[in-house]
Design goal:
alpha/beta, Rossmann fold, 2 domains, five-stranded parallel beta sheet, about 35% helix, elongated, binds ligand PMT
Amino acid sequence: MYSHLNGKHIILGITGGIAAYKSAILTRLLIKAGAEVQIVMTPSAREFITPVTLSALTGKPVISEFFTANTGQWHSHVDLGLWADAMVIAPATACTIGKMANGVADNMLVTTYLSSKSQVFVAPAMDLDMMAHPSTTANLAKLRSYGNIIIEPAEGELASHLVGKGRMEEPENIVAELDSYFGKIASRGSLVGKKVMITAGPTREKIDPVRYISNYSTGKMGFAIADELATRGADVTVISGPVEVTPDNPSVKVIDVESGREMAEQCAKLFRTCDIAVMCAAVADYTVASPADTKIKREGNNPPEIRLVKNPDIARALGEAKRDDQLLVGFALETDNETVNALDKMARKNLDMIVLNSLRDKGAGFATDTNKVTVFMRGTDKPVSFPLKTKREVASDLVDMIAKISL
Ligand code: PMT
């Protein structure tokens, strides 16, 4: 019946209210739908329902403290937050809602909430007066402004049950809401019908027929993104500087270029017909003003002076030409002042999203098979930071985000 919950990782946060007994039913329904459920309880929730009942249902120990009392094992709220595809707090008391709204991280549940990268659903449960209090109303408004989804019984339903506002939504309806959320995500994940161009690799700026200026980019990051986009059904073309890597996905088309100017020309041609452009190439910012036609000789006393001129800023040109129905994603490779520089590039180049990688992070940036990125989206001031992952995994995270905003 619930087709989109299969295999999903759900954190079910339970707080201390009478409705806590309903969370056992909610747990059972989620498990039945194929989800993996990790229960996180506040200490007071244990007064209403025992962890034994819940762990018997989930097959996992319930977490309610930062440390397991007998072993001293540390529960990482950060890892939990990353593991989850969604977090549901049901029932959510006025107290926990207040703590969530104001960042009062004095228990495992609120700490996990603050670390969560996934969608959070909140099912309030309290008496009518508490629910109507301006403090609760203001706290719920704050949660909504953080992007949390508040699940409440519909007005008509309340009337028919002859009970007041504040009653926790029925577990069946909570599961239906989650299932529909994942259904929407699944359809968003598909990029069938989307035309995407990606720049990848370095550029080479000729000094003479045997020498050039370039950088350490291998194309690994750009090609990983290309493969991931193609796997989701997109029609993908990579405009690539000289690299060794090739796409794994046979449907990915590659246009080989050498210099920044050549890359700019190809990008300008392709961009008009694209829905999405991802600028992952490390384009040389400068090129040689007058490359020599013949090999510059070593003879003579003075080493040659090579005059550089600016290369076209490809991302910026696309940002200027961008239509409302196009999405432009840039990268920022930094060594210092990372956030300031990335935000400045996003604004200057009119990007919708910028992926920051810093050479100060070990294993990030050029040449490695791993990367550590922070993503800034236009219109939101909360960046999303990912831990060090393989470039393939990074590509999957980035394409998830691209898919979400490109539809
Ligand atoms: O290829 P790998 O070895 O896997 O390494 C991946 C990578 C480190 C190259 C990649 O993750 C990355 O960060 N790419 C962007 C590198 C870069 O040149 O960043 P930048 O901060 O200088 O440029 C900002 C943005 O403008 C980038 O999207 C860049 O592609 C674009 N740009 C820059 C200069 C220029 N003349 N034209 C551009 O389009």
